[in-house]
Amino acid sequence: MANTLSRVDKRAARAAVVRSRQVSIKTTLLLFRCRNVIEQAKLNHQIVAEEMLLWGWRGTPQQKEFLDHAEAKALLTEARASSDISPQARASFLENEHKLLDNLDDDFRVIAEQQSKRLVEAHERFSALMDKQRFQVVYPVLPMDLLGIYILLPE
To answer: What is the pLDDT of residue 121?
Structure first.
């Protein structure tokens, strides 16, 4: 985990490859740590907001069947292993998915920016109720940290 957070290696700190009856096509779930620097517009006071984000895809990323946080969370919560996979097969699936990640940098940037906007909107709603200070995103911290990769294979 420390290597992932210090960006020594692009690989996820946690990984799993399982066969599951809850999916009908290979499904990949990614767990990111998203960080955003937010500042109060008038006071130049900065806050670092950090959250976990689940995201993924069915099939391959090129098929563009992406899963949002809620769908990915439901799968991660409900999917159960239904049979064994050899260590060689697990390693092969993980290696293939890691190769796909390099081509998704633009998608990851868009996701980080969307999360930043949602976070600012939430802070502004809270602020409007409390002290009426306006917040704005200075920037999302990129790249997001990939903490986990979970590959669900159909039985």
So the answer is: 78
